[in-house]
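ok so I'm stuck.
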Amino acid sequence: VQLQASGGGLVQAGGSLRLSCGASGRTLSRYDMGWFRQAPGKERHIVAGISWSGDSTVYADSVKGRFTISVDNAKNTVYLQMNSLKPEDTDVYYCAAGYRLLRVQRGDYWGQGTLVTVSR
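replied:
not stuck anymore, here's the structure
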């Protein structure tokens, strides 16, 4: 599985960004998809996850009601719509695919990180 993330950038607090993750490879339907975040020197944590069918989602408590994860099966793309952004959302965000990502909250395949910076 290959993953290509895009969409990060600089935004003011209260603003919005949409991250995209294009996936390629065989049997993508076997995998859950997710977005994780990581600060320098810290562990990577899940932000949101979704089943390939789109039927199941999980969110970190800190983003519930503000972020929405979605999947477009026809385009093999996963999105993370980030609204009402806060400075504490600043981090490098990684797209991931995982066989049981929703359950174990860990990815098996990773895209490159994309930096999200929220200014005050």
